[in-house]
Amino acid sequence: MYKVVEVPNDILRVTCEPVTKFDKKLRQTVDRLFDTMYEYDGVGVAAPQVNLNQRLAVVHTDDETGPLVLINPEIIETSGREVGLEGCLSIPGEFGFVERHESIVVKNQDVKGRTHTIQASGFFARAIQHEMDHLDGVLFTDKLAVPNPGKDKRIVFMGTPTFAVSVLERLLEEGYNVVGVVSQPDKPVGRKRELKPTPVKECALRHGIPVLQPEKVRTDYADILELKPDLIVTAAYGQIVPTALLEAPPHGAINVHASLLPKYRGGAPIHQAILDGESETGVTIMYMVDKLDAGDMIANTIVPIEETDTVGSLFDKLAVAGSDLLIRTLPAFLEGWIEAVPQDERDVTFAPNISREREQIDWTMNGESIYNHIRGMNPFPTAYSTLDGERVKLFMGEKTTGSGQPGEVVRLEEDGFVVATGNDVAIKVTDLQPAGKKRMDGATFMRGAGQKLRIGDRLGGTHERT
């Protein structure tokens, strides 16, 4: 099996050289191409897609036409034109409408060098033409016939936080017809308790889009129905939407959820993925149902979690990944090309909203878990502990060595202090906010208030000295 190369890659823009040797090596190459196509779940793969400069490709659309080897192919007859949706293993997750010949006759050689003619029509003909384009350095994205199908669909967008803003902005950038936005009611913030609009509302108003803010969408949705949506798109809206509203649009209602469902249903999937020490998460687009994040899955994309990622950095990555996934998915979805997949209830896990109690660090946990806890609360709602009876917020730390009683300060360094945990992985505090002070890095703290700190002081309990 080969590894499929993805754009951008120079080999995908090469006009390939003719095959001249019909030998055992060629047959082995053909076998590996078929293995690669089946492994990647494709219907065709061309030599340049596996970094080979040869006029060679394989196609297998169904058992009726059978597996086909294309060697030095040439189209000698055509008839009819039709537009159809295409994707490509070298451009994963992207789809577009391309105009092709409806029927073709191809002059082709087999693995022994013998010349044959092949008649093909419909999807079989489309697949052959797609692979032959690869042999000339042409991608399907170069030939898009309908760059933005679905522009005329009336879309109502439902969302509230910054994550949802990225999705809404992309819909507007791509020219989709967003006729209304639904967001949570404005809430009072700050000491003056002034009403502040949600980020999604602010975005909608900038674009001149009407905004609805029902207190309880379960009962107050008549105004949304009056917008006559063809499709409802939601992203972190914050309320369960009633079935009557979900079923009203012809294309239903879909949700952009920041996890790889069925894992991490609920309101804090980004936090929970980091808290659990996951190495990857992602975004799932699913049908909405009148049950928390339980709808059939339409598409998903994986996003790696780096060792230093926080909720803030992962939030940004997933916002981009989610908006990209939606834009890639909508054309095929609106044409009815995507078959949704039910979630496996056996694999369901939940990510409930972060309670106040969960913000506090338990120093008896192992160091790895505490490290994940700190970055899994950064920048919001923020992990905290207590020192000398006062709360201190911890925004970031480093894993290091050190042992002692859980919560005990075991080392003082120029750029932070080291705290013992429930195992031999200690935490060096490098970004914090003491009570009544501004947020600061560890070095600044150690030059100021940290000068009072002593080895043996305890976090999360009484202030002790040795």
UniProtKB/TrEMBL annotation:
Residues forming coiled coils: none
EC number: 3.5.1.88, 2.1.2.9
GO molecular-function terms, A-Z: metal ion binding; methionyl-tRNA formyltransferase activity; peptide deformylase activity
Entry binding sites for (6S)-5,6,7,8-tetrahydrofolate: S259, L260, L261, P262
Binding-site residues, Fe cation: C88, H130, H134
InterPro entries in the record: Fmt (IPR005794), Formyl_trans_C (IPR005793), Formyl_trans_C_sf (IPR037022), Formyl_transf_N (IPR002376), Formyl_transf_N_sf (IPR036477), Formyl_transferase-like_C_sf (IPR011034), GART_AS (IPR001555), Met-tRNA-FMT_C (IPR044135)
Formyl transferase N-terminal domain segment(s): 153-330
Record has Metal-binding as a keyword: yes
Entry's Gene Ontology cellular component terms: cytosol
Active-site residues, as the UniProt record annotates them: E131
Pfam families named among the record's database cross-references: Formyl_trans_C, Formyl_trans_N, Pep_deformylase
Domain Formyl transferase C-terminal residues, every copy: 353-449
PROSITE patterns documented for this protein: GART (PS00373)
Keywords: Hydrolase, Iron, Metal-binding, Protein biosynthesis, Transferase
Cofactor note: Binds 1 Fe(2+) ion.
Reaction equations catalysed: L-methionyl-tRNA(fMet) + (6R)-10-formyltetrahydrofolate = N-formyl-L-methionyl-tRNA(fMet) + (6S)-5,6,7,8-tetrahydrofolate + H(+); N-terminal N-formyl-L-methionyl-[peptide] + H2O = N-terminal L-methionyl-[peptide] + formate
Known function: Attaches a formyl group to the free amino group of methionyl-tRNA(fMet). The formyl group appears to play a dual role in the initiator identity of N-formylmethionyl-tRNA by promoting its recognition by IF2 and preventing the misappropriation of this tRNA by the elongation apparatus. Removes the formyl group from the N-terminal Met of newly synthesized proteins. Requires at least a dipeptide for an efficient rate of reaction. N-terminal L-methionine is a prerequisite for activity but the enzyme has broad specificity at other positions.
Family: Belongs to the polypeptide deformylase family.
Name under which the protein is recorded: Multifunctional fusion protein
Protein species of origin: Exiguobacterium sp. (strain ATCC BAA-1283 / AT1b)
